[in-house]
Amino acid sequence: MRLTTTRAAAVLGAPVLALTLLAPAAHATDVDPAAAGATVLDRIGAPTTTTADGPVWSPVATGFAATPTDDLPHGTTGGAGGDAVTVRDAAALADAAASDDPLTIYVKGTIEPAEFGSMIDVASDKTIVGLASDAELVGVGLRLDHVQNVVVRNLRFRDSYVPGDWDGKSAENDNDGIRVDTSSHVWIDHNELTRLGDGLIDVRKDSTAVTLSWNYLHDHNKTVGVGWTDNVVTEITMHHNRFSNTYQRNASIDNVAAGHLYNNWFDGQAQYGTMSRGASQLVVESSVYSNGEDAIVAKDPASKVDSRDNRFTTIRGRKDDTGPTFDPAARYAYAPDDVADVVRILTADAGTLGAPEKVRRTVTVALDGTGDYASIGAAVGAASRSSHPVEIVVEPGVYREVVRVWPGADGVTIRGATGDPEDVVLTYDLAAGQAKFYGGTFGHTGSPVLSVLAEDVTLRDLTVENAYDEAANGGSQALALRTSGDRTVLDDVRLLGNQDTYLADPGSGDTASRTYVTGSYIEGDVDFVYGGGTLVVEDSEIRSLDRGSGTNNGYVAAPATVPGGKGFLFTHTRFTSDAAAGTVFLGRPWHPSSNPLVDPSVVVRDSWLGAHVGTPAWSDMSGWSWRDDFMREFRNAGPGAAPAGQVVDGRPQLTDDEAAAHTREAYLTGDDGWRPWRR
């Protein structure tokens, strides 16, 4: 596989922790942990940067990992007091990690296992640290099972993802970057984890006294899971971690006695951010949630979360706060950085000592392991953090995943490698009315297979499909594509679905976002092109599916044109269907939540209409008459068109003067002179 990527804390009255399932081990109790930690940091060349909370690279454990026991009076110290070794391959790392003695293990270069997706067992009293900026584990993870006193720092974990298994359900994909089972005193600090098998980090089965700090987690579905037990004993701190383009589990925290999350940055979570489950007691403070859904969720009646001084930017959905839980300051010393500084600090300092992520201007995605990435979502996530436009070339295959082109990925192009859109299929099967496992439904922003939220994005030569099964599950909104960024282009794209296949959202600017669709195919049955944005569809096919009715087989368009928008224009396009003659409407006016400020507008001109289009060509919607909004045709042909030159009730036509104002140029060019048809 060619895949390439580029404080000392004083403890205040902390309780003595014990884990009865741990095997006894010998620890160096006379070692100075701060001096030992400083030696490690000096060896790897860590900077001396500090923030209000203390050193960015702390010589000693922080958070709950620093809490003392009789056996570990200094808290987590890892291999301090033992020998130091350097390893350069998986076999040497496995041997050293399994040692019975305290050991500091320096990892040099790239570690790849003999068996892809395997995990290396780590014994107690170990520090495993990347020696230089290029230290990484590729296709292999670390497993801590019934151990204690382990430190993992400055390592990149990447690419044990099984191509095509975005859901993480494959039997060969049950591997994590770091898995902690029934273990105590674990400090996971300054690592980078991306594109792995199941979870990036899992803390499970009564593990406790765990801290995750200054890690960079990105481009993955299931990110951090905590729990897998009915016991409520785990104590965990997560601070100064950066999450980017991570779909869920950020973190999912189940039955945790005390969970403290502070100064984390969650950017781009398409399903949910942080979840308190079971009887968990969480404090979430001074963290940033941006570009996502359901930022903070208390799932169950006993799930508690105290949300303090958090910042939410472009977040839709839940931001739960159930009130006070516990006081972290009574457990250990900390001084959270100002929430206004979190993004800047974590952009600069989260992750390893390695060079910043580099993304080439053209990258490839392939299911056979020959690409730069094995999922479209991972490539798009990298592009969203790039300082330059990126072209993503997708090799043939069926890619089952949910993809978001996040703000910041301006100028990205996603195109199929062969030029035939049927060769590259992006598919998933969420519906807007479908229940989330933690309550509520996905909604029109949660269900799309692909959402384009950045500007100047081009989709070309690919298929986007919402495969939700209406026959089995009943009709529901099930979006293939949502666009809300300005200047979006669809060129030779197939959009497949039933109800609400394509949402052209207006965006958040002063004027409605503009989308140009050319040479493409869109199919559905009910309102399958809808929204408040400005949209021009040209030289394309609009296919109405046959619902088997003799009277009403659906509606093509449902515009909800916002002030400043132009609405929808279909020009030089074919409207086709196998449905019975006269049973499909060209559209109806959508007033979301009966909003009187929208002014729905749709024009179909110079197009061919099949016999399925009836008269009247338009329909009322939710008490709003189509006659009160702008629903017009002009110079159409075909068996479903109104006879030329005749005035037909229910088929209002543009005048010649009006027609001059309803062209692709009038809809799209704008003050910036955008003319995408000239590419």
From TrEMBL:
InterPro entries: Pec_lyase (IPR002022), Pectin_lyas_fold (IPR012334), Pectin_lyase_fold/virulence (IPR011050), Pectinesterase_cat (IPR000070), Pectinesterase_Tyr_AS (IPR018040). Keywords: Aspartyl esterase, Carbohydrate metabolism, Hydrolase, Lyase, Polysaccharide degradation, Secreted, Signal. SMART domains: Amb_all (SM00656). GO terms for biological process: cell wall modification; polysaccharide catabolic process. The keyword Kinase does not apply. It is found in: Secreted. Residues 1-28 form the signal peptide. Transmembrane segments: none annotated. GO terms for molecular function: lyase activity; pectinesterase activity. GO terms for cellular component: cell outer membrane; extracellular region. Residues 83-295 form the Pectate lyase domain. The keyword Secreted applies. Belongs to the pectinesterase family. Belongs to the polysaccharide lyase 1 family. This is Pectinesterase. The lineage of its organism: Bacteria, Bacillati, Actinomycetota, Actinomycetes, Micrococcales.
